[in-house]
Design brief:
about 110 residues, alpha+beta, Alpha-Beta Plaits
């Protein structure tokens, strides 16, 4: 797997860097976890501060255009949407509450 950073912009308001990069791979598309680990090594940051936003791959190619965000501090990651944190294994999925329906009332004859 090879990563080539195409664009890096600094977002001072949210204290993060926003990356656009090209991911070249063999066989199947790698998991987000693998991409995060490889990108963290390349950029030199902690994996807890890195969120891979999108991985867009065209059918039949072994290349994906991806976007990621690298936060300066761990508290900055809390700005991310919950489902994005779950996808990146930075948060646990909340269990849904199951509502039980009341039994229908018996009909009187």
């Amino acid at each position: 797997m090879e990563i080539e950073i195409k664009n890096k912009t600094e977002n001072k308001v949210l204290a993060r860097d926003e990356l656009t990069f090209t991911l070249t791979f063999e066989k199947a598309v790698p998991s987000r976890k693998d991409v995060r680990a490889e990108l963290a090594k390349k950029v030199g940051c902690d994996e807890k501060l890195l969120v891979v936003d999108a991985m867009k791959c065209q059918y039949g190619t072994q290349e994906a255009v991806c976007t990621a965000r690298i936060y300066k501090e761990e508290k900055g990651v809390k700005v991310e949407r919950r489902y994005m944190l779950v996808r990146n294994s930075l948060a646990e999925k909340k269990a849904k509450k199951v509502k039980q329906k009341a039994a229908p009332a018996a009909k009187k004859k």
